[in-house]
Amino acid sequence: MAHLHRVCPLCGTDNKVRPGSKYSKGEWKIKECKNCSFVYLENPPPYAELEENFAWEKTFAEETAFRRKRNPLLYWISTKNKEFKGKYLKRNKLRDLLKTLSIRGSVLEVGCAGGHILKSLGEGCVPFGIEISRQLARAAVKEIAGRGGEIINASSLDGLARFEEGRFDCVIMSAFLEHEVHPKEVLKEARRVLKPGGRLIIKVPNFGCLNRRVTGKNWCGFRYPDHVNYFTPSSLSAVLKGAGFSIEKFSFFDRLPTSDNMWLVASRPVR
Ligand SMILES: [Zn+2]
Q1: pTM of this prediction?
Q2: Most buried in the list 27, 68, 109, 261, measured by CB within 10 Å?
Q3: 206 φ/ψ angles, rounded to the nearest 5 degrees
Q4: What is the distance in A from the centroid of ligand 1 to the CA of 148?
Q5: How many CA atoms lie within 13 A of 150 on its CB side?
Q6: Domain containing 141: what range?
């Protein structure tokens, strides 16, 4: 399998001669950019492989089994922690955000997987999705049947290119940007397809979180080779501003150090 070679996706520096960071695993080289310190996978598999072989749920299952075997105690604690959150913190952050922001109209999810988020959108929303995995795209088509939208089975850049400027009221990227080989270019395209004032909602793992600092290599945010970008609150803000977005909501509570993920709402400036 021929791997891709990536320069730093944020600043363009080629870190080829730098040794892999301690987060590298097997053939997968995780680099820390010598110029901007961004952490990324340098040699991801090509897109064609992603279409079938690296559907995220497959590597997720493998990683889960691996974690359980390697450290049963840590696995038990993290499982209990998730159970606790599921039981007592039942709030659905995305649903709350969509409600607070009064999102209606055409909503595009980039990396929509099997369509569970699109399916849950309220009556006032017409769901559209882009998904690279053939299998997941097929599932998503069924989920949104009769809602007036469309699922495109393509890479995010190819999929976004099919929509005219100002097409959408909202773009969702939930657990997507960490997978995207060209995050800057995709964000610029997302800005283009949004109406002026339209919102971009992002959920992405927070490499700067406490759990990563404590558990190091064992952090649940590492998935090889699915996760290719490791954003911190500052690199996430920077890449969005660079793509021409205004950051609308990114408070302390949206990027709690105790959470593995962070949430951000940006918008396409009106002028
Ligand atoms: Zn860099």
Answers
A1: 0.87
A2: 109
A3: -100, 105
A4: 41
A5: 8
A6: 91-206+231-267
